[in-house]
Amino acid sequence: GAVVSQHPSRVICKSGTSVKIECRSLDFQATTMFWYRQFPKKSLMLMATSNEGSKATYEQGVEKDKFLINHASLTLSTLTVTSAHPEDSSFYICSARGRQGPNTEAFFGQGTRLTVV
Amino acid sequence: GESVGLHLPTLSVQEGDNSIINCAYSNSASDYFIWYKQESGKGPQFIIDIRSNMDKRQGQRVTVLLNKTVKHLSLQIAATQPGDSAVYFCAENGGEGGSNFGNEKLTFGTGTRLTIIP
Predict the structure, then answer these.
(1) Are strands B112-117 and B10-14 parallel, antiparallel or unpaired?
(2) In the predicted model, what is the mean pLDDT of chain B?
(3) Which among A102, A109, A110 has the least Cβ separation from residue B104?
(4) Furthest-apart CA atoms within chain B: distance in Å
C-alpha cells in the first residue's frame, strides 16, 4: 500500500510552546488529509479534514486557532499545536487519501506521541 | 449523532482458532467500510475494505461480512497467529458532504482488543 510518513514520532515540549507535526505522502498525491487524535485505549477522533490548497474543515469542538492545519502541497500537511498545555498530550495521527475517490482506503502515518510538560 | 460502535471491547482467542470481531454502525447512508488493525504506539494499518454493494469480501486469512439490513459489519480472522494481537477498528465512510471527491471522512468505531493466546 501507499506510504504516509509522519514526523516526529515522539515529542516533548514545555507548556506554552508550539509544536509542529508533519505528514507526508511519499508515493502518491494526497488530495485530502485527515488529522486524528487518540487518547489511551480509545478510538481515533477526527479533528479536521484538509484539502490541498484549501482551509481545513474542523470537527465540532476542535479549536482551529489552537490546532493549525496547513495543506500546502499534495504531499505535505502540517498540524501545529499552539500554546500547548498538558491536556494536549495525546497521540496524533494523520491519514491521506489520493485522487481515486472517496470510497478508497485512507493510509495512515505512524502517529506522533506528544507530551506537554 | 451518527456513530459506529463495537459489541465487544476485548476478545481472547487461542492461537490457531478463528476469531470474529463485530461492529454495528448507525449511518444507513454509509457506503464504504474498512477494517483497520492498530498495534501499540503505531498508526492504523489497513486490513480489508468492503463497499455497500457487496455482502462479503475475502482477503488473506480475513473475511469481512456486511449486513446492511441490520447495519452490522464483522471481521473474521482465520487460523489466528500471535501477530494478530492488536486493536481492531471498523470505520465507515459516507453520509456527510455528499460525494465530495476524496473528501468523505472516516468515522471510527470504539475498537476491539484481540489477544491471541499461545
Answers:
(1) parallel
(2) 86
(3) A102
(4) 46
